[in-house]
Amino acid sequence: MKTAIVILNWNGERMLAEYLPTVVKYSKEDAEVWVADNASTDGSMDMLARRFPTVRTLRLDRNYGFAEGYNRALAQVKADYYVLLNSDVEVTHHWLTPLIEFMDAHKDVAACQPKLLSEADKDSFEYAGACGGFLDKYGYPFCRGRIFDTVERDGGQYDYAMDVLWATGACLFIRADDYWRVGGLDARFFAHCEEIDLCWRLRQLGKRVVCYPESKVYHLGGGTLPKGNPMKTFLNFRNNLTMLYKNLPDNELRQVMRVRFFLDWLAAVEMLVLQRNLGDFKAVIRGRRAFNKWKHDFDKDRQEIAKTRRLNPVPERKPFSILWQYYAKGRKLFSQLA
Description:
The protein is an alpha/beta fold. Helix content is about 40%, strand content about 20%. The chain has 11 helices and 13 strands. The strands form 3 sheets. Strands 1, 2, 3, 4, 5, 6, 11, 12 and 13 form a 9-stranded mixed β-sheet that branches. It has a two-stranded antiparallel sheet with strand order 7-8. Helix 1 (about 15-25) links the parallel strand 1 and strand 2 (about 30-35). Helix 1 (about 15-25) runs parallel beside helix 2. The longest helix has 24 residues, at about 250-275.
């Protein structure tokens, strides 16, 4: 098969039982469906064997997280295109064909994503990727259709293909050659920000990343680590800083890190004083400490990225602060941004 849909599972029996039927039904003509299991302890694999005998499976010997789990699984899958698909995604009729046709016609595009809508409210975008992702000057991600906690309703306002910085890991369509050209997802991240890091590396090579909303899927979100979980906060802060350290050009790194030091402490104090969330407060501090402890492990990555960088600046990394746009100027919608 030219296209392989690979779902990484960890104790997701309920999610697979609910959402895998649409994947099998609407993809069987265009792709081979795989489930790679991160050493689940529930009944996931037995359920797959019983209810979905046509789905191919891979069993990993332990929970490697999102990044390394996918690297190990995809290394065993032969295809021209990979689709990294979360287990809590409901796909729709004719979702896959437009993505395949778009990638076939645009050889300079390394990765793309469909329009990501909410499974809970199907007229709204979904937080994890909406209609394609961007970064601001200081590394804060935002999307067409979602800036911070403001999630837009889908009225067709973004129903056109657009180059983006990153495509959501909830449904990431990527060329196998390009995935491995940059070494795949960074396994050290374990989870969170790894798809942004991957796409940013591809953009710096001059490859394009695109949201192609002719295809749409529905994502539940928050199935593994829900919002407000201190581990999720820790991973987000540690990995976001690490991603910046890896990918920023030398002439920007020091200034951006100085500003982030201030902004991260401001966020931590806000969590403690206004939200009374001691767990997230501690998670931010732990995330910054963990970054400072391991950042020099990524010095070789910085050197390699600098040596191979063909595109600088990357236009989808915006030169403004999204915090300033959102909180000071009140620009809550992507269409309102400068």
